[in-house]
Amino acid sequence: MEPPIRALEARPDRPAAPVSWASNPRPVGAVLRRRRWTLGLVSGTTLALVAGLTYLKDPEYTSTATILVEGVRDGQIGAPLDVLGRVGAVSPVQTEAEMIRSRRVLEPVVDEMDLHVSVSWDGIPARPSEAFPQHFDASAGAPPGVFWLRRGEGGSVGLFSESAGFPMAMADAGDTIRTGGLSLLPPAGTGWSQIRLEMASFPAAVQEVFERVAVRTDPAVDLIEVSCTARDPAEAQSLCDGIAAQYIQLRTVLQRAEASSTAR
């Protein structure tokens, strides 16, 4: 935890002397001219540092999706939210925007897209669906850590834990490897030697996605704009599409449950 910010005060045993142009009449221009090389060096170093950091920073891409929230004006969005909206306690559209970034929406998206898993194919980053096009599934309960998929003699494949060093599971060529919430079918062919998998904890991955998703509402219209950021443009678009689809599915389930409860 960062220390609290405190106001600076003059020490009572060494009171600060007031500064005035009358007591210190040296022109500011003369001081700046004498220090011009120092100032120029500091400014040039700062600009070079900023330019270097900008060049080294990985590019990020943003995709957007616009969602129309139906039933806000005519009270069909839900009785509790409608009452709160009339008394000014909450905006129905804002509540829907918060639902989009809720765990009930983000967790299924992270699980479906396997966003808690990073894959490197012989040193080249790839999505799990690209490295394992036939089958890949990492559940929310898969243990975090670094794992290596390595080819053995006779076409066999082993999944090794980097921390343990021994194989967690072995499979013959063409068979599925299953262990600890992880299930995958190794890619066919001999065009690879090893594949690195890094799995983050599922809650940490959900939080990371939460920070990459932003929502914007306009009180004048019943629209919600969802912005998703990623280092790959296809992933940014897939993330926005997945969030929009999951939100619509959740909203449909809630509306059906409310209609069923009202009919009783």
Please tally the β strands and state the result.
12
Strand arrangement across the biggest beta sheet = 3-2-10-5-6-7
Strand content: 15-25%
Order of helices and strands: HHEHHHEEHEEEEEEEHEEH
Q: Helical stretch count?
A: 8
What separation lies between the terminal Cα atoms?
52 Å
C-alpha Rg (nearest Å): 28 Å
Fraction in helix: 25-40%
Describe this structure in words.
- The protein is α+β, with helices and mostly antiparallel strands and 264 residues long.
- The protein contains eight helices and twelve strands.
- The radius of gyration is 28 Å and the shape is elongated.
- It starts with 27 loop residues before the first helix and ends with a helix.
- The model is unreliable at 1-56 and 83-87 (pLDDT under 50).
Could you give the topology of this structure?
Blueprint: H1 28-34, H2 36-56, E1 61-68, H3 79-86, H4 92-100, H5 103-113, E2 117-121, E3 124-126, H6 128-131, E4 136-138, E5 145-151, E6 157-161, E7 167-171, E8 177-179, E9 182-184, E10 194-199, H7 202-212, E11 213-217, E12 223-230, H8 233-263
Antiparallel strand pairs: 1-12, 2-3, 2-10, 4-9, 5-6, 5-10, 6-7, 8-9, 11-12
